[in-house]
Amino acid sequence: MIKSRLIQAAKGDYPADLVLKNGQVIDVFNGEVFQADIAVLDGYIAGVGQYDAAVQTIDLQGQYISPGLINAHCHVESSMACPAVYCMEESRWGVTTLITDPHEIANVSGLSGIQYMLDASAHLPMNYYMQLPSCVPATSFEHAGCTLSANDLMQFAEHPQVLGLGEMMDITGVLGCHADVLHKLDCFSQKIIDGHAPQVGGHALQAYAAAGIQTDHESISYAEAKEKLRAGIAVLIREGSASQNLDVILSGVLKENITTNQLAFCTDDKHLADIRQQGTIRWCIKKAIALGMEPVTAFQLATINAAQIYHLPHLGAIAPGYQADFAVFDNLHDLNVTRVFHKGKEPAFASAPVLPTQPSVHLAPFTAADLVPKLEPDQSYPVIRILPHEIATEKGEYTGTGAQKAIAQGKLCYITVLERHHATGHIGCGLLEGYGLRNGAVATTVAHDSHNLIVAGTNAQDMEIAVREIDRVQGGYTLVRHGKVIDTLPLPIAGLMSPWSAQTLNAKLDKMVAAARQMGVAAWNDPFITLSFMALPVIPKIRITDLGMFDAENFMFYVVPAYQNED
Amino acid sequence: MIKSRLIQAAKGDYPADLVLKNGQVIDVFNGEVFQADIAVLDGYIAGVGQYDAAVQTIDLQGQYISPGLINAHCHVESSMACPAVYCMEESRWGVTTLITDPHEIANVSGLSGIQYMLDASAHLPMNYYMQLPSCVPATSFEHAGCTLSANDLMQFAEHPQVLGLGEMMDITGVLGCHADVLHKLDCFSQKIIDGHAPQVGGHALQAYAAAGIQTDHESISYAEAKEKLRAGIAVLIREGSASQNLDVILSGVLKENITTNQLAFCTDDKHLADIRQQGTIRWCIKKAIALGMEPVTAFQLATINAAQIYHLPHLGAIAPGYQADFAVFDNLHDLNVTRVFHKGKEPAFASAPVLPTQPSVHLAPFTAADLVPKLEPDQSYPVIRILPHEIATEKGEYTGTGAQKAIAQGKLCYITVLERHHATGHIGCGLLEGYGLRNGAVATTVAHDSHNLIVAGTNAQDMEIAVREIDRVQGGYTLVRHGKVIDTLPLPIAGLMSPWSAQTLNAKLDKMVAAARQMGVAAWNDPFITLSFMALPVIPKIRITDLGMFDAENFMFYVVPAYQNED
Description:
Largest sheet of chain A: 8 strands, mixed
Distance between the termini of chain A: 66 Å
Oligomer: homodimer
């Protein structure tokens, strides 16, 4: 029996597999640091104290040893790396547990996408947990790859990697007591249900909490976070590439000295290049300490708090019986990660295989002419106006003549979304201002949340070539100019992820971004990420989907003759 | 659907059953107090904020409202009151949740005793949870009413009132990896396992924690508590009638300012008379505040901490979706409880019925002569020496002649344990010094942990009458003098509990204690409780069981001819 060996090793009567000597142990229970040895057997901690007998001994020489860090909420697909590559990047910076929501791939591939992420992560040296995507499709204003009902999700409810239901973005559905939404919440009421409630407060927040939502990672102010905490909702402080909420939330926490055990750290979406430079949760700890938080408190947020919020009783602490996941740090200021352990071993990612996937780009026949609106000279057209450094957009307005002129001047371009999951032929056409593109086309299958094929371009011919190139490589990023493909990053896994290593992927991305700049895309503007948010109909004020130009404030499509799809 | 009504009530679109207006709400998540109304529907909290529409409105007029208090560990039988009466006493002082261990009745009646406590508590206005007794019998040195194996306990594992396995007192069995003990721990490894590890530290504590023990309520110093916390064991701070550990533990906590979320309050054993005067968990909060703890922190220990330690996600906080359990206090200094709510209603205990029970006293035929040792003049005899105000005893020594003389002088008395569960006829005889009894006999069926019939007396005749009186009433307390029964408290429920009200029971106990004093029992000495611990073989240094006088340091029986039972 394994437990009896662990008990004997704890007593010192049985040699440990590994003894980590002389570490400064971060004690997340008492909020202290103390020097001790850690005895590990069979992947679990046997004891903390003075231990010697071991197969292997590593002298930590007074370095700080923390429980393995926990990223409480992330979307792996947003990194464009496959799970093995993404996990390796997280692991290098001390993360041993990820709580992921495969919302992106589920919008493309449904249950088989979820299964893919489970299979691709099951044998990695990482505790890879999953919250099942609750909102597929995210809205009814576009065509996603599939629709997931409560019954669909329940097929995975008892999977050992599954903890509960992913972020419930359908606030209208919750507050309106829509039967399908409440059914999903009921199905997972004994598990963890994540929320997504940006700027929801007052009675609406009370109702959202009463529905059984347990976490939220959308707070962008301390007041918002505090109101959610008060309502019993754990606050996952987000520090990603686009959204960085740590400073503002923790400044308030420190000022008012509130209880911190319902706070944890997450990234939501963080790009590989940023992870390479900063890490994820280790970066959060470092920022928290810099703000004046007690170092061990910051480690609590990064470890035991997340473990308790997600009911993972074997994770998040250095104590007997806990899984032997550790991150070793040089000191509590630089927070360089010098070693990582997962189940008592230093993680080896090299041999992780990348699984094959099904083709995910299925387009109906089309012509170049289908990709641009048929503008009438005197008709007035709404356009999407990109605002620098903001994810929200403004609505602009051009006549047909004015638009043609602006396109010729490089001020405006076409933007088009093609349904790419079931070859339905839906194509939504529109106009985009402020993207900067002067000549050519940019296309991608990464287009939140339905991940249809989105293409921006100054002429129908380059746009057609770009779309056909994306079809050829079955998803990815491409740049086309003067009738030629400049460069392409294939993302063959659901049109979202690459099997490449982080280094190769980053190098390619850097090269393509530079090429896009040559084509005029503004310097403040990531040419692909900006594009990928143009199809997200839940963010104000104006977007485009495969069903056409969308008024994201009034939740209706613009009725403009030439914009309408012929279907 | 109930949830949709709760959501609508939270939005203010559906009238609440109850709105508590203008309370100072104790926010255990942030550690703050804020003024708000609380809307309650169907026994759950719909929302906290500004609410008006309600069937019933109660204006709290600025009083403090806390989540219902949680007593994290108690033995109801030790109060001698049946569950309905005990719960009423706890409830009056703001407790809405009990985590009980029916260890006493299980030693008498086994599974049917556990079933009795579940049945007797199921419909009370109290969240009555149970940890299944792990150690029945407590030792192999005595005959209990039954033996409970892991498989026996598993019959109750999925009962909605059962949270896990009760205090694992068999430390030797855990550290020695005894198969039956590890089997019990394995069976409950997905639930909560309580510990009982007085003064266990170092490698032994690491091993105990590695075995999966999650809580402990035996710490009597801050250092002991802190070492347990560090090992991942939640510390239930005990403040009962006999053991009071709050001051010493919390003084250390406050001095070192450690994290407090793995601390909760419990009573273990607290007498009805003390509860009447002080309450239980409310008394802990008051003492903690008096020591200098932030009031809301003390409330966290009394509510959310216990709920989280015992995985009760619907309890311990005032937030949407939580059960509507509240205690209302006049202020944070006096802490008088002015109102209590359980599932949104003020608890009504009056109509709680007392269930019938099976007879539990089964004695083999005996004579007066069987109840006293046959002392030989020059033989030396070990005696139990009671130490004032201590539960531990010392070993004394008398010759047969010396003992007879001391008995005549009122310095010594006989002490005898009769097996009472299965009429096996086992009788253990011995001598007791320091009890104070000058003339007569005192007998009881409350005798930890096996609850055999224990009788102390100065002569065999009074002892016989006392034993026959206890047999007649099927368990209880009795006093006999000069051949006559002075008074008897029947405890017909397993020989441990009375169906009487707290008032009646307390009055009777007061009267009998006074009568015992008349018979010479020392004033520092509760005549019944002192006696009830004389048969507990796990506490040093010398005890008596139905198998004879016991060396509780070396875990062996004394071999003295006249002490030996003839069986």
